[in-house]
Amino acid sequence: MRRLGILLSGRGSNFSAIAGAIDEKRLDAEIAVVISNRPEAPGIAAARNRGLNAVVLPSRGLDREIYDRLLIDELRKHGAELVCLAGYMRILSGHFIREFSMRILNIHPSLLPAFPGLDAQHQAIEHGVKFSGCTVHFVDEGLDSGPIVTQAVVPVLDTDTADTLSARILKEEHRIYSEAIGLVVSGRYRIEGRRVIAESP
Fold first, then answer.
1. Which helix (DSSP H) or strand (DSSP E) does residue 192 occupy?
2. How many C-beta atoms lie closer than 10 Å to residue 167's C-beta?
3. Are residues 88 and 113 part of one domain?
4. CA distance 81 to 91
5. Burial 92-104 (b: 16+ CB within 10 A, else e)
6. Could you tell me the pTM of the whole model?
7. How many domains does the chain have?
């Protein structure tokens, strides 16, 4: 599963971190294609600047499953084996998730199962937690509920706003996403229930 399909909707900072890890030989994988549902996404321009296959599939006005079938076709055309969501702002259909069962990764800006869904950093501030962070997980048909591959903890400071907390969490996202992809690509793990257990080489 070395060939990655990256899905993004915005700036693509996690995509750029993954691409950088590949360039620096910290991640043994290759990016087969980068796909955005938004033509104006800066991440698509960044992918083109790197000389990667960069495809825009506009989603506006399309039924979710119809759009996802187009997405599946595009990923298969480029031979993508592992799908990595990098700021992809659409909920995937059950059909898509079943087509790539346990081959879709997402990164979420909280320590799941705490604060799933949108505005996780704002939720953390509102709830007064002392620690938050980020989680890389496999995508299943629930909301941010799939087996957890790895997490990083970030302290929540008394002076934090959602923006300042987001910025510190994002640094950790950039670090752990590539590490999680590396584990999955290596195949040296097993899934027991909701647990992802790394195995020795």
1. strand 189-192
2. 12
3. no
4. 20
5. bbeebbebbeebb
6. 0.96
7. 2
Cβ atoms of residues 26 and 178 within 8 Å: yes
Distance CA 135, CA 80 (A): 23
Domain of 28, in residue numbers? 1-101
Copy the structure tokens of residue 154.
């970030």
Residues 10 and 92 in one domain: yes
Q: List residues with catalytic annotation.
A: 108
pLDDT tens per residue across all 201 residues of the chain: 699 999 999 999 999 999 999 999 999 999 999 999 999 999 999 999 999 999 999 999 999 999 999 999 999 999 999 999 999 999 999 999 999 999 999 999 999 999 999 999 999 999 999 999 999 999 999 999 999 999 999 999 999 999 999 999 999 999 999 999 999 999 999 999 889 999 987
Residue 104 token pair: 């879709």
Q: Are 95 and 14 in contact (CB under 8 A)?
A: no
Q: In what order do the strands lie in the sheet with 195-198?
A: 54-56, 30-36, 3-8, 82-85, 104-108, 131-138, 148-155, 195-198, 189-192
